[in-house]
Amino acid sequence: MNDKKKDNDAGNANPFEDLQKQLQDLFGQGNVNFGFSSPDSSVSPEQDDPSPDNHDDVIERIRNFSYKPREIKDYLDRYVIKQDDAKKAMAVAICDHYNHVRRCIEDPSIRNKDYSKQNVILLGPTGVGKTFLMRNIAKLIGVPFVKADATKFSETGYVGHDVEDIVRDLIKIANNDVELAQYGIVYIDEIDKIASQAAGGTKDVSGRGVQVNLLKLMEETDVNLVSQTDMMGQMSAMMDMQRGKTRATSINTRHVLFIVSGAFMNMTEIVQKRLTNTTIGFAKEDTKTFDENDFLKLATTEDFIRFGFEPEFIGRLPVRVGFDNLDSDDLLKILTQTEESILEKYIGDFKGYEIDVEFAEAALRSIATSAAEEKTGARGLMTVLERTLREFKFELPSTTIENFVVDERVIAEPASVLKEVLKEQAPKINRMLKDEILAFGDRFSEAHELRLTFDENAIRRLIEISQQSEKTIRGVCEERFKDLQYGLKLVSQNTGTTDFTITTAMVEDTDTEISRLVLQSYNKDRSPDS
User: For the segment 264-280, what is each residue's pLDDT rounded down to a tens digit?
Assistant: First the structure.
């Protein structure tokens, strides 16, 4: 009886080890560690924390936070055009928040005092710089930053993601360093999509549930580092306990700054209606002078509640920032005055093909005007540039062009200009393509010890096929002559010939022409009586 019990104990000493083996066998990855190891394993514990230098650098940066709001705005001016009100509001909110964090690090007793975070809600149409503004702020401060879309969250987490997952993502961004993550920034876009009041006037219960869960995060709550649905993470944590390794099990969101944003397309109607109906303030005719983003800037808590947000939820977002629409002048400045602009990307794309591209001033203004018509803000710039230059990026790298100027006509008539450029370059392109044909012949000769010579008519026909099919010369030759060596070797064995000429007939129908040569090689030395 005791022996049997001892055997059972021995067999069950580490059930996770058996589970790991079963999983490895199931997935066919015997050498993969799924996060389990025996308590007495010789494998050293996983190093979840970043290197000490990285950790210390970030903490030291927060400890020494000394930016002034104007300094942050000056930095943002380098990357984001317009949006002065938004930059000022964000600069003040960021400075107030991280000054408080710095004081908490210096004096831990401050942590326990009541603190109302300056969580922010950004309102504005797509492409006006909301996300870009946040990314640059996080980059300047050097704290962990994570972005998510509110539409992926669900109340329970069984359909979609649990709202707490975004805090866990913040920890991953911080290399699993909980201390760093608790000072990070969470940015949630499309927050207007979880408003509980649907467009038809019905209540969206799931949206309300997501709001309730999010407001807990935005104020202060402890989030478990391992989700209830994360089986691997839970087992890994249990194994750490068996090994005697202690690690944090939760993160407190007290000092995580939350920024949410959305387009709030229907909000303007709510604000306009309130302003129109009020007895004190704006008269009906006065509201005609406002555009959409003016109304967004005037949104009050009452308007957000009418839009479909819970009072408790919107109360956790005291800083409200309306973004301006971007006109063609603003888009032109984005192209020409911001650092790391999209224009630099396209210049770099062509530079990768050793082509220097210049943009004329008139062309840049035309791009900005067309982008403004797209009604998608700065994203319209990429739409216009891609639509205009896509064919140039496809064709020019296969030419000898080293310099190219994008003028106003290129923007207005890209197809016609490209056709003219290719026609002008035709003689140089043909010479280049001819060199590629000869290079294919050299590679064939080296690989098969059979010398290929292309006559001029065959060369012209191969070039025509390449241009008509939009395939490279190499692609055309490899496709048409893929089995050429077998027939030519047979001919060479029968005749001793190692030099062959590629004719137009062989280009047009390689199989038929090779069959003719092979048959001819067999008949060449036969006597009439044989």
Answer: 988 888 998 888 876 55
